[in-house]
Design goal:
heterodimer, A: about 270 residues, alpha+beta, 5-stranded mixed β-sheet, 7 helices, 5 strands, B: about 230 residues, mainly alpha, about 0% strand, globular
């Protein structure tokens, strides 16, 4: 039978006391490790939570700033363009017009009509910049192609878009957000990359929709994106990130293996169409 | 010495009392198992005291029985703790059956010889120390933001870990040393000391919230996340 045998010359008290103490110390050590580890994890989680809150705050601020910028741009467009146009039209149609010669009257009415037409066009342009009618009426594919054709038409850069599988469309809200993200990416590429071409492809894999933009200019990589996104000046990138977050998607900034093209991939999980 | 002995005898009342105050309406079976275990311990202490006073030869029978029943209670507690994890539950069940089978055989053998079954108690202690350590290790892997100290299971498991670690050497030396008067003194000190600690900690556990095992992350979760990640 297995029992602890004690030699005559070796005190059993020592074995018992030290053995018990040893076991007790082992047990206390295990419990202490667990307790300290849990405290460490809680501290770490709190830090992560704090960082997440700060990030949210930053995105919120960026979103508010972007809204304010948009409002200021609309206000400036209305004040600087529509305002003077309508004021000029009013000048043509002043009270003295009835005392003028019929030929002068006709000329004034014609000029006023021209100015009013210009104003209508201007207001239409402002409205279209807020919500592209092609997107609203014909969906994302048409809107993207329209956007790329307009860029291509400028002659500065060769732009093309191709949708491989758009049988199941994203819902309206998702399409608008994707359009805004692509718009922002295109603005950045045109402004900063000095590239010669941009190509957008759309694809579907499992329950995700992928949009990938290739360009041959100077681009950024994921690490730079994450740095710039936290930078106080990277408002556009912050907007992209906040929109990606709303879409519950992911965005990847990469370079291809031959280091010739930069690519930006947007991964959007599909939601039911509204 | 007598004070320690009597405190040790009265200590099982603490968790029973705390159960009746805080947990009598609890639907958690694990809590009830601990309550019945504490009740059984109290009963055992009373019978043990009586048998020792009349100098009965059945004291050793009582201790052998206590080992089997105590092990069964604690194994059942761990089975309930892992009720949503069949693998762990089955392993504990098999160990429980094997040990009980061994302890019963050992019980008849040792009582024929009139000896103390140190081996069975030693194995029991080792198994329960391993179970407790394993449970704490899984806690270490899946630590959440909830404080450990406010959890019934944490207090119960550390009770078993401390109690069986503390009494391990005393129990495995019992067979060879039990007739030695010095050992008997140490036995009462260590046994009563750890018994008091056990019942105090179980009483503390009774005041804590029971976090249901289903709220705990299973071991499969890591694989699940890995599979779904890009």
């Amino acid at each position: 039978m297995f029992t602890l045998q004690i030699n005559d010359n070796f005190s059993f008290t020592t074995v018992l006391v030290f053995g018990t103490l040893g076991m007790l110390i082992m047990a206390i050590t295990i419990i202490s490790v667990l307790v300290f580890h849990q405290r460490k994890v809680i501290r770490f989680n709190k830090q992560i939570q704090k960082l997440e809150e700060e990030k949210q705050q930053m995105l919120l601020k960026a979103s508010i700033r972007s809204q304010e910028d948009e409002r200021q741009r609309i206000a400036a467009d209305l004040h600087d363009d529509a305002g003077p146009l309508l004021a000029t039209a009013r000048l043509y149609l002043n009270e003295n017009l009835i005392h003028q010669e019929p030929a002068v009257q006709l000329q004034s009415i014609f000029s006023a009509k021209q100015i009013i037409d210009d104003s209508i066009q201007l207001i239409r342009n402002i409205s279209h910049s807020l919500l592209p009618p092609t997107l609203k009426n014909f969906g994302l594919e048409a809107a993207m192609k329209d956007l790329f054709e307009k860029i291509n038409g400028s002659g500065v850069i060769n732009a093309s878009a191709r949708f491989h599988d758009n049988r199941e469309r994203l819902n309206d809200e998702q399409e608008l957000l994707v359009f805004r993200i692509v718009q922002e990416l295109m603005t950045n590429i045109i402004k900063h990359s000095n590239g010669g071409f941009i190509h957008l492809t759309q694809n579907v894999q499992a329950n995700n929709v992928y949009f990938r933009i290739h360009h041959d200019g100077k681009g950024i990589l994921q690490k730079q994106f994450e740095t710039l996104e936290h930078d106080s000046h990277g408002l556009g990138l912050k907007n992209i990130q906040s929109r990606v977050k709303v879409l519950k998607g992911k965005i990847f900034f990469e370079i291809d293996s031959s280091e010739t093209y930069y690519k930006v991939t947007l991964e959007i999980p599909r939601e039911s169409t509204s | 010495m007598k004070t320690l002995l009597y405190t040790g005898l009265l200590a099982p009342i603490l968790p029973i009392l705390f159960f009746l105050i805080f947990k009598r309406k609890s639907k958690e079976r694990a809590v009830w198992v601990i309550f019945f275990y504490a009740t059984y311990c109290a009963l055992h202490e009373v019978i043990n005291l009586y048998l020792q006073q009349i100098d009965s030869k059945y004291v050793l029978v009582l201790f052998s029985l206590f080992t089997i029943i105590e092990f069964s209670f604690i194994c059942n507690y761990f089975i309930l703790l892992y009720k949503n994890q069949p693998k762990k539950k089955n392993v504990i069940t098999v160990i429980w059956i094997l040990f009980t089978f061994y302890a019963i055989i050992s019980f008849f053998r040792s009582n024929k010889l009139g000896s103390w079954d140190s081996f069975a108690i030693g194995i029991e202690s080792l198994i329960l120390i391993i179970f407790s350590c394993y449970h704490l290790f899984t806690k270490l892997r899946h630590t959440d933001n909830l404080s450990l100290y406010s959890n019934f299971h944490f207090w119960t498991v550390i009770t078993f870990l401390l109690y069986f670690s503390g009494t391990f050497f005393m129990n495995i030396m019992a067979e060879t040393m039990r007739r030695n008067p010095d050992y008997q003194v140490l036995y009462y000190i260590i046994n009563s000391g750890f018994a008091i600690l056990k019942y105090v900690l179980l009483a503390v556990a009774m005041t804590m919230k029971v976090k249901k095992p289903k709220d705990q992350l299973s071991d499969l979760d890591d694989n699940l996340f890995l599979k779904n990640s890009l």
